[in-house]
Amino acid sequence: MENGGPASSCGPTSDDNLLIVSDLHLSQGRDPNTNRLSPNEDFLFDEEFARFLAYYSDPSRRFGRPWHLIINGDFLDFLQVTCIEGAAEELSRGRPKYGLGCGEPESVFKLKRIFLGHKLLFAALAKFLDAGNSVTIIRGNHDVELYYHEVQAAFRTELAALTAPPAAIAAAAASASASTTRPVVQPRGTVRFCDWFYYEPGLFWVEHGNQYDELNCFENWLAPLLPSALQDRRRKSEIDLPWGSVFVRYLFNPVEKKEPFADNIKPQTRFISWFFAHHPIRALKFLFRDGNYMLGKMKRAWGRISHDDRSETHQQRLSSLAQQWRIDESDLRSIDALRASSVFRNPKSWIMKFMRSSVRARLFWPLVLGGLLLSASVLVQLGAHLLVYLFPILSKWITHPASQRFSDVLQWVLIALVAAAGGVWLGDRLFSPKPVALPERAEKIADTLKVRYVLMGHTHDADLQPMGKDGGLPERWYLNTGTWTKVFSPEERLVREENELVFVQCLRGQGGLQVDLLKWQDQAREPRLVKLFT
Questions:
Q1: What is the pTM of this model?
Q2: Do 67 and 158 reside in the same domain of the chain?
């Protein structure tokens, strides 16, 4: 349990101007040999983001202060890095289909693969830092692997190498030819990592927001590893993935080989019914192949253990964060208590109790499909008896051998249709948790900490709305920075452009703080206000 934790460098900062983005979801990017994008890649705006950083690196646009860029979660998408080429044999053994796991050495390999596929973006980020600006990275549910100190160190090393003089890199490489580690040449700017939030008293609370989502919340956000008793013995560490991450790894990644933007359908839970409706055969294949493997992983996560110290570790690290950020510990605990109840382990749900027990016995899919087929067969039989009762003249026709054969075929067709419809209905019910209510959580956070602005991401929906007034305080605002990926509706697959390339700009001055929700307009090479309607 000592592989990660709150970074000691994270805490209150200076009064720089702020840029806040989230949900870039960088994964494998372009293959260095073919220059083709990975089918799992969701981030298509390397050039646009590079120009965005160059715009704010211009000294004439500093407004008298350096910029502090806050990347509020899901910057990197470790879940969608499935490449294993070049990985050590002990890491890749037995995992060719789903990619590497989420232990510390596996995550370091994935990080380097992300850097390799997005050279332009990281070079622009290095230049942004070299211009004297700073970056803070808050982890989200897709880059929870930033919890590992070794991953953070690898990020700094890879980024620093992009600004190091070629001669310095060559000299360092010659002196350590046996080592594969790149030399660390720090840029003038700084990179910091925050496990949970960024906070300025009376002004800002910034966090990703996945902890308020039943599908993507972690039971112990500050101690997100599997209990040691449940970890793979071949690994030193492993992340305890929530339900949504399991689906990305074992459902979305295989499906995206033919549907590259499957996981961009929002809300995420609508993809289940869309998948069954548009690809029923592939959906059934998933149930018996990838789905069975996925359930095996769930079984391990639901395993019974005699002792689990993660909650204690989480609370200890929460106390440490309260000291670092100068927040009353009781206030931080009350915010932590706002998190959603994970559908992975909700003890009040009879559906989850049934799933948990059936998964342990590897009977879940047989029980579901058997129940659907049995129900369909009973309905067909009842329908036949009802027809004979209402129309006795049909009895002779129904008992004729030819009619009986036709009836058998029709019965199986109806059974298949009812089973498919039942599967869509069941999937929609099982995997449709409550809507993610970030504005409501934001208001409670604002009430607790007396801050004016609460900023989140995660949902990929750009938002700006007032949270009312409290005790004479100025009006408070909830903001959501949308995403830098493509977003589709499940029905018409229309691009919702006002959620893309969105960020928050905060300018400090003698007249106070000016906060704007903006969208980067790449054709104009400048930001514009986001168009939101009431």
A1: 0.76
A2: yes
Q: Is the separation of the CB atoms in 359 and 301 below 8 Å?
A: no
pLDDT (tens digit per residue) in 500-531: 899 999 998 877 789 999 999 999 999 999 88
Cα(262)–Cα(251) distance, integer angstroms = 10
Residues 523 and 80 sit within 8 Å (Cβ to Cβ): no
Q: Which DSSP letter does residue 38 get? A: P
Number of domains in the chain: 2
Residues 220, 77, single domain; the answer is yes
Q: What are phi and psi of 487, to 5 degrees?
A: -125, 135
Note the pLDDT tens digit of each residue in 78-122: 999 988 877 777 676 655 677 788 889 999 999 999 999 999 999
Residues 30 and 86 reside in one and the same domain: yes
Q: Compute CA distances 248 → 98, 215, 245, 254, 262, whole Å.
A: 10, 11, 5, 9, 10
Residue 1 lies in a domain: no
- How far apart, in Å, are the Cα atoms of 89 and each of 72, 84, 93, 97, 234? 34, 10, 6, 15, 12
When comparing pLDDT for 219 and 281, which is higher? 219
Domain of residue 197, residue span: 17-171+181-343+434-529
What is the distance between the alpha carbons of residues 295 and 130, in angstroms, rounded to a whole number?
47
